[in-house]
Amino acid sequence: MSSTGTPQPTSLPDDLNDSLYNYSVNGVLPIVAAVVFAVALAIHLWQALRSKSFNYMWPFIGGLILEVVGYIFRRISRDDDEKLGYFIIQQLFVVIAPALLAASLYMSYGRLTLFVEERFSPLRPRWVTRTFVTADVFSFLIQGAGGSLYAGDNISASKANTAKAIITVGFIIQIVAFSCFLVISLIFYRRAKAGIPDSHAIRLVPVLWLTSIPILVRTIFRLAEFASSNDNGEGYLLDHEVFLWVLETIPILISVFYLGWFHPSRYIPNDKALREKHIEDPLTMQQV
Questions:
Q1: Could you tell me where the DSSP H helices lie in the chain?
Q2: What's the pTM value of the predicted model, to 2 decimals?
Q3: How does pLDDT run across 11-43, given as a tens digit for each residue?
Q4: What distance in Å separates the CA atoms of residue 78 and residue 200, rounded to the nearest whole number?
Q5: How far apart are CA 74 and CA 68, in angstroms?
Q6: CA 126 to CA 235: how far, in whole Å?
Q7: Which residue of 30, 89, 141, 173 pairs with 73 in a disulfide if CB–CB is 3.0 to 4.6 A?
């Protein structure tokens, strides 16, 4: 500190000066996160291969790939002097990956309603997929567009406001879609539980809830993070890295490992003959 009491730039860590981040990025945690997400990716790839469930789990696997790549580039962008491109990649991939995870949850629910009985669902299976996956795609594209605008060293106030508004809309769409999905799946679960109380398949619904809730918590955090930031891309949540790990990384890891263990294929078999048999006589297929 100088004689006038003004802090000198050298009092900050070297990697914080002129940084795209508002803090000194931890160098170890991105590596740990990338490795742990890679393990989750391997588990879900194995599950998809084993159960032949790629047709509805491929978005989830795609989301995990984005998580792995995103955290790798977060570590790279910490040290690279020419890191704007790397920063944009890590920002976009980590922000939009959960939208892909959510898409597989919606597709799993649609598949479940066909497997159990359509009449229990307040929304026809084809409209479940169309409605929620479409909302998810819009959320994905909007967040991506906003995130690309937000990344930059000298972002103008007007551009920052535009980016913040775009990203906020994307998160709101995702939160509304998730909330509606939870309500619709609850109605389906209560009806199915009353109609075929011993069905093993409907146990997937609580699994989808418990997978969705951490993602929803994370999305609410992201909405608060961007909505509370100022024109310079600064804010209490954005300025403290701990919130990223506690309210972004950990909730998503909880979701992906939980669904890796209680995989949808344990409740809705891929075998078409089994699905048709269940539709013809659901009481004889309760333990499938």
A1: 29-51, 54-79, 84-115, 125-128, 134-150, 157-195, 204-227, 241-244, 250-261, 272-280
A2: 0.83
A3: 334 444 346 677 888 989 999 999 999 999 999
A4: 48
A5: 10
A6: 42
A7: 89
